[in-house]
Write a structure and sequence with these properties.
5 helices, 123 residues
Length: 123
Amino acid sequence: MFEPHKVAYRRPKYKTAYRVKNWAEYEKSLRNRGDITVWFSQDTVEAWTPRKNGKRGGQPVYSDIAIETSLSLRLVFQLPLRQTEGFLESLFRLMSLDLPCPDHTILSRNSRKFTLRKTWKKE
């Protein structure tokens, strides 16, 4: 029985499937989805550990840029704090950088005082 009011909800008899014709290019695009390129400028590497402030008591181990960079990577990759710590350690190991990685407890304590700045411009 033909019911014209239900035509929009019916499945078509033939489903047109996307057929890949250039497999090499398709495979390359799939591999590029997982490509991550991260770099730290020399200014950032030099500013990672703060200078001594000359005051009594414990000196800061990580600069504000280190905390902010760690929290930014956490938000970009949607990582918990401990995984952010491990991710940074692996980045430093791959880049052969001898920098200390902020602990997850330091990131947790300092995350309240940082708000991420927008450094890009809308065109």
